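Journal club side-thread
Mid-discussion, someone asked how the predicted structure for our own chain would compare to the paper's figures. Pasting it here so we can look after the session.
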Amino acid sequence: MKTRDEWEKASSSLSFDGRAVIGGKRVATEKTSEDISPVTAKSLADVSECGQREVDQAVASSRAAFENGWSRMSPGARKAALQNLSGLILANADELALLDVLDMGKPISDATTIDIPGSAAILNFYAEAIDKVSGEIPVTDPGNVALVRRVPLGVVGAVVPWNYPLEMAIWKLGPALAAGNAVVLKPAEQSPLSSLRLAELALEAGLPEGTLNVVTGQGETTGAAIGLHPDIDVLTFTGSTQVGKYFMKYSGESNMKQVWLECGGKSPNLVFADTANLEEAAEFAARAIFFNQGEVCSANSRLLVERSIAEQFTELVVAQAKLVKLGNPLDPATTMGPLVDRTQTGRVADFITNGSGGAQLAHGGNRLTIDGSDCYVEPTIFANVSTSSSIATDEIFGPVLSVIPFETEAEAISIANNSIYGLAASVWTSNLSRAHRVSDALHAGTVSVNTVDALGMNIPFGGFKQSGFGRDLSLHALDKFTGLKTTWIRYE
């Protein structure tokens, strides 16, 4: 691993191009916005603000690529192109990692060991699936044969968040492109640079021009233009529940495009007194909320602890929080960097100041300035939190943990399920029957037992209730980007 000085030197040598990529070319727009780094508090680039005209151009380019190029390529050729792109991600790993670090503040140690290699691996997973997912021949009467195939839907609009800029883009692009669709990608306005670079690498990898277009801009303009566009066939989105609802509305107002949403979360972490190793559970509980600065949709932000061990366990989690190394993300020793921007930092700080409902501040709570950036918030833990307080009900998307005591298993389940969200949950117990019983009762897309936020590229990820619908990762993600087409032949 490079030293901080080496990473800073590498970052200073980068060139940043904020122009959109449409039809295989960089496109400038009349209006631009500054991309401010939360690491340096300085502007990285002037980024294109794409309006209706640019979105129309991107969709037209993707439509042409879909109809005349990408979808008509052999499975082997598409597979080779996506594997080439996976290889180019690894070949340019340091650059892509730095782009994400400078754009949104994640530690360089996480970007280089998790985000970038993970992105390449996920893309390769879907490339490998291209020639391995088959259709069906259902049973029919004699003299008839029915062929059921999965066919690409056409043009996909993909709108992705800023917490995992490259990896979230790949979560959408991998299955969408593998299925044969062309994609118009809109990265978050806070973190556009790695997606723009990815579009250049896609051309180098052999994807036809227009197969991947990247349009940048604000959600209320660029995002709305994608959601309302009559020639986009399917929309996939990861982000807030409020914005997810906008896309459902846009679909109804336009062409009834399919909409697949992965939205907010307020995931509970249930720790029972019979947990075999409380120290390990505390280590995982801290990781589940402070990793990636708490900017994780499935972060275990509600810690439900059986009352008989609540005080002891809170002390153990506080001890883990004290081990967090808050600092400049270009330092490999840093384990928690700045929040994405001043707006998000202010929002998190407001929750800490005004949202606790009188709960006890057990650790942290301060906003800090490091190397000229005031986007840092200490790992923060509140004890004895009321279930009605906003820090217990609202998605904060920052390093704030609410500890909520419970008396009985039934009460723990009731508190955990008392949320508009249903993305993820964790359960800690040494009782196998309880593990099954509680997991079955929790209304969440993924329940992790004796671990937190379990995730694998071959395992579906997504939630229930207002956390959205549809699944990312695994072969099930292909369902979002394909339609079942039947060809029925009567031969007698």
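Post-session note: The chain has a mean pLDDT of 97.
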